[in-house]
Amino acid sequence: MTIFSKIINKEIPADIVYEDELCLAFRDISPVAPTHILVIPKKPIRSMAEVEREDKELVGHLMYTAARIAKDVGVSEAGYRLVANTNDEGGQSVPHLHIHILGGRSMTWPPG
Ligand code: 5GP
Question: Does residue 111 fall inside a structural domain?
Fold first, then answer.
């Protein structure tokens, strides 16, 4: 049980910007960009490394939803970044798959 499961179950509050039967999106508690939203599946998948063939549609739904939210919050035209930190070297700190939507400023490359 991660903190994100508790957010899904509404056991702890979050600034939710979108919800449907498959996923939830909410604002990151420690934003690293003016727009910083997390899109998570309700299914408790630990990371992209755990994604199975049966999850292909769900992962597509997460990416599609992230793009729609980026449009809705007004960062789409200027540009934004989608990130799925994966396992230790990927910098993942919460073991529940999540897509970061980062926008509202210019991003740099390579990432740290
Ligand atoms: P990761 O480092 O795993 O890629 O990203 C986890 C993200 O979850 C971090 O950006 C962190 O700020 C965010 N986060 C951790 N705990 C909470 C929480 O309780 N509420 C919200 N809204 N975000 C959280």
Answer: no
In this structure, are residues 68 and 39 in contact, taking their beta carbons and an 8 Å threshold? no
pLDDT tens digit string along 59-87? 999 999 999 999 999 999 999 999 999 99
Whether residue 27 lies inside any domain: the answer is yes
Pocket test for ligand 1, best of 27, 37, 88, 94 (most atoms within 8 A of CB): 94
Whether the per-residue pLDDT at 1 is higher than 90: the answer is: no
SS3 109: coil
Regarding the beta carbon of 91 and ligand 1, being less than 6 Å apart is answered yes
CATH of the domain at 75: 3.30.428.10
Mean pLDDT of 39-43: 98
Pairing state between β 35-41 and 99-103 = antiparallel
82 Cβ below 6 A of ligand 1: no
Nearest to 66 by CA among 31, 88, 35: 35
Whole-structure pTM value: 0.98
Q: What value does the mean pLDDT take over residues 82-95? A: 98
